[in-house]
Specification:
about 300 residues; D-Maltodextrin-Binding Protein, domain 2; 2 domains; 9 helices
């Protein structure tokens, strides 16, 4: 595995959540932590999924240091023996009146504008587009709210919306921040869709640190990000800042996830409920080490 923990190498921050968390926001996070710790931070792009799967890689391999990950990934990292990561104690706070400046977000359930559904009861037997096995708002929320769902993988929130718009799926649950971005950037396309209900609140994607990272560096990173409230780069990304979080909001049971005391995710990162649903096999992108270009080095 080599010496991945050497203090003279840059810290590696994985960008799983692009473009929902914008490139500018990731660059700001990297620059802020780099300045506070006096150490370069590289951003590694991996948009195949919303975070590590149950195997914990690349955190369990010691290949990376930091990432914003969706809640299911944090639960899987935390519950490994030994834990593959630690909670830094901050998560993004959406600029959404419903979030009230805290680290909570929502799923918007979308259908085509001409679809007759007025609510969830009208979607019995529908095909749902779901983004990836680590997504709380786009996959686990569907499994939690819909009995025996028929699922098709899309790979991203925007792709789920596109599948619904194209008639390849009847419905999708999309991160509210992603939905607002689509409405802003593609008003014509998003105008073909409408939200029929909202699920949540869900805890937002926490920043996690590899278990090898020094506790003092974790605390200083937390303090630095909490100082960014109202930063114009975050404002442009639809975030009011970062808010403090602790593991109480993520466990032992996150709504939409199997209780870790009674159920376990499968190796592909899906839940027992998901394995019972009528869906294709796991997307090829699930699992493995991040690939993709190294972007900004702060």
């Amino acid at each position: 595995m080599g010496d991945h923990h050497a203090a003279d190498r840059p810290l590696r921050l994985v960008a799983y959540l692009l473009p929902v968390i914008s490139e500018g926001a990731y660059a700001l996070v990297a620059a802020t932590i780099a300045e506070r710790l006096g150490r370069p931070v590289e951003v590694i792009v991996d948009t195949r999924r919303s975070g590590p799967g149950i195997d914990g890689r690349p955190f369990s391999d010691g290949e990376v240091d930091l990432a914003l990950v969706c809640a299911p990934s944090w639960c899987w990292l935390r519950d490994r023996d030994p834990p593959a990561a630690r909670l830094v104690g901050v998560a993004p706070a959406p600029d959404d009146i419903r979030s009230a400046g805290e680290a909570w977000y929502f799923s918007e359930v979308l259908v085509r504008r001409e679809h007759p559904a007025a609510g969830l009861d009208d979607l019995h037997g529908a095909t749902w587009a779901v983004n990836d096995p680590a997504s709380l708002s786009g996959y686990h929320a569907v499994v939690a709210h819909v009995h025996d769902p028929r699922l098709v993988w899309s790979g991203a929130h925007s792709a789920s919306a596109a599948m619904v718009r194209a008639g390849r799926a009847d419905a999708a649950a999309v991160d509210a921040l992603a939905w607002r971005r689509l409405q802003r950037e593609d008003p014509s396309g998003s105008g073909d869709l409408r939200a029929i209900t909202t699920w949540g609140p869900h805890p937002t994607q926490p920043l996690v640190a590899a278990s090898h990272m020094a506790a003092d560096d974790i605390q200083r990173s937390r303090d630095a990000l909490l100082s960014l409230s109202g930063h114009p780069t975050l404002d442009a990304a639809g975030l009011s800042g970062f808010a403090p979080v602790d593991d109480g909001v993520y466990g032992p049971h996150v709504p939409g996830l199997p209780d870790r005391r009674t159920a376990s995710p499968s190796p592909d990162g899906t839940s027992e409920a998901g394995r019972r649903s009528r869906r294709p096999g796991p997307p090829a992108a699930a699992g493995g080490t991040p690939t993709g270009p190294y972007s900004t080095q702060a």
